[in-house]
Specification:
Elements lengths: L1 H24 L19 H24 L8 H29 L1 H4 L3 H20 L15 H17 L18 H25 L2 H4 L1
Helix pairs in contact: 1-2, 1-5, 2-3, 2-5, 3-5, 3-7, 5-7, 6-7
């Protein structure tokens, strides 16, 4: 129990510190030609999802310290569901980079420097903590739907900037290539479906390892 919580605590602290440091660094330096200032970095789901995952890790830290100090026995269920939301978001970033963007931009652009953490290390840290370490409760199937919220919100903004406003009128370029060929409406269903698949499969593994089931 204590070894599991200690490992989760260490990973969560590393996630919070790393994400904060990298996000702040964007205000001083960026090797991404699409980012002209630190504020520009927030238009990328990569940045937003990593911040969300870091916040879900930050929420866990005091509860895990409380368990190690003997003040409580379980992590709150709501915190675990929040971690599911953050983990699903960064894993969507991971899979999007690996299978969609890597062939377009190449490994040098997507996996070197700070991108290594934001696209690979950060998402995997969130996955490991949720699947194997923060397993104090089984997650209800209906609560996997909460994992869609960040994608729906970001998708609405991306659609507005890329499709409705358009780059020529001051909107964003289609840097994720989601509107390639004008098929943004197909991409919407694919991304929502894949996001839910991540949350659904992660819940299956998490629940198989949960303390509730072992009891």
């Amino acid at each position: 129990m204590k070894k599991r919580i200690t490992a989760a605590l260490i990973l969560n602290i590393l996630v919070v510190i790393s994400t904060a440091a990298i996000t702040i660094s964007y205000y001083f330096y960026s090797n991404n030609p699409l980012v002209e200032s630190g504020f520009d970095s927030y238009k990328f789901f990569t940045t937003d999802s990593n911040i969300l995952a870091a916040v879900s890790s930050l929420v866990m830290i005091p509860f895990e310290i409380g368990i190690l100090r003997g003040k409580s026995e379980k992590l709150p269920y709501a915190a675990i569901v929040f971690k599911l939301i953050g983990m699903t978001s960064v894993m969507l970033t991971f899979f999007t980079v690996m299978f969609l963007l890597l062939p377009v931009y190449g490994p040098k652009f997507l996996l070197l420097g700070t991108a290594f953490y934001m696209h690979l290390a950060g998402p995997l840290a969130a996955l490991v903590t949720f699947l194997f370490l923060e397993t104090d409760h089984r997650v209800k199937l209906s609560h996997t739907l909460f994992a869609l919220i960040p994608v729906v919100l970001y998708g609405a903004v991306y659609l507005t900037e890329v499709v409705i406003i358009g780059e020529k009128n001051g909107g964003w370029s289609d840097f994720y290539t989601f509107n390639r060929g004008g098929y943004w409406y197909v991409t919407v269903f694919i991304m929502l479906g894949f996001t839910y698949l991540i949350a659904f499969l992660a819940r299956l593994v998490h629940n198989k390892l949960s303390k509730d089931k072992r009891r």
